[in-house]
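Tokenised fold entry reproduced for everyone:
>
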Amino acid sequence: MSSGLSPQQAGAILADVEAAKAAMRRVIREHRGHYHLWIWGAAWVAMPLTAHFGGDRAARYFPWICLLGGALSFLTGFTQSRQIRRPTNGRFVAVMVTVWCFAALFPFVLRVPLDSPRHIYAYFCLVAMQTYVIAGLWTDTYLLWIGLLVTVLVLAGVFLFPGIFWLWMAVFGGGTLVLTGFYVRYFWR
């Protein structure tokens, strides 16, 4: 007696996985998942442009831009939650909260000097991209690939293009999120 799956059973399981993936993508596209990419892409464009034109001291406005992005994201999620009848995954939320709590502690525990707005910004961009990677592993791979791509772009900005770091981040950090939102909205199937 064989304890493995038959080719027909394996094919049926793979078909179910693909059907679930397609259904999730349809829900994300139809219920404004792309708005979150646009909101945070716009925030990622606004923050570096603020610092580029206002100098590193203008980074003090970043928390306000993030607060606005968070409020818009919450409102978008709240309005869409009435249309999507899927319960929130508590374990997923716990993982995300844990990542952000540890990320907030690391600079203090490691005694990293917090004197460079560029490096602080890059650090928190990398933490955000870590959450995209986790979300991509948990849900759909498009978030995984966005997270990996933007991580590489952030690191390139820090190490290869420090003279144009803020412009680099506006175009390639925020721009990537905005363009991905358009891709999800108009071309994703």
About this structure: The helical segments are 7-30, 33-54, 62-81, 90-109, 117-138, 141-159, 165-186.
